[in-house]
Prior knowledge:
With about 130 residues, the protein is α+β, with helices and mostly antiparallel strands.
Amino acid sequence: MEHxxxxxxxxxxxRVDRHGRPVWVIREQHKGKRYTIALAARSxxxxxxxxxxxRQDRAGYEKRARAEATEPVYLDDDRLLAFLTWSRDEKxxxxxxxxxxxxxxxxxxxxxxxxxxxxxxxxxxx
Length: 126
């Protein structure tokens, strides 16, 4: 995956992902241990809030980040609603497009019911 470094911030550096979005990365060393953690923050303010949590409990934060990265992901009602809301409000897609997205995702929800999209998804299961 190719990305470029955009600059620095209070907790480390900012890179640009393949979609052109900024990714805030905590990069610090504390008591001889080096930490490099990409954040799921959407703004520098959110990144600063995550940095504060990280600095309160570095080991605990790192454990939680690893656990979240391995938690199963399912295409369920909550995830569908969150995506469609983002598509409409943040991405500002047209109502027609959002409706089409909903139609396709409902079709996939039936076929992917109970399948972990991070781990269990195999082409042979489709």
